[in-house]
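Lab channel / #folding
Pinned by the channel admin:
"Please post every new chain as: sequence first, then the structure tokens as a reply. Keep commentary short and put observations after the output so the thread stays searchable."

First post following the new format, from NK:
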Amino acid sequence: MKIATWNIERLRKKDNLPLIIEKCESLNADILVLTETDSRVNPKHKNCFSTVEPDDKYNYKPTETRVSIFTKYDCVKHYETFNDQTAVCVELKTDHGNLIGYGTIIGVLGNRCKSFMEDLNKQMILIVMQKRVVFALLVILTVASQTSIIIQKMEDINLKKH
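Reply from TO:
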């Protein structure tokens, strides 16, 4: 099974749209998670599951969405998330059994906003409480120190649970 993820960065360079679609399709991923994406980025996959349209103050365009999961697999169940504007969770029927996928961004401004840690904690607690298996990356981050924060939080939750 091939799983890929990419932060499209709200399609800031519209001229790159054909190249982005071509790259997404050339990956030939069974599951492709796109963050900060746009409905114009629509690779050829059987199914697409996305967050709802953002209703906040960050100037999202009508075509923009925060997370989309593209897949060749059928959906068995669509799960409620902490925030349906920033996360999407689906259970997929794969050749290897059912797989629960969770795509998210945490904190619209990453760790530059105080809501980042609050959102991270709520997302992690929801996942652990519901005993969900997570594929791909929990969140797409470009700064290594942010990634270590997430890994540490996951370890903390696992230690507290046992």
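NK: Residues 125 and 157 are 8 Å apart (CA to CA).
TO: also worth noting, The mean pLDDT is 75.
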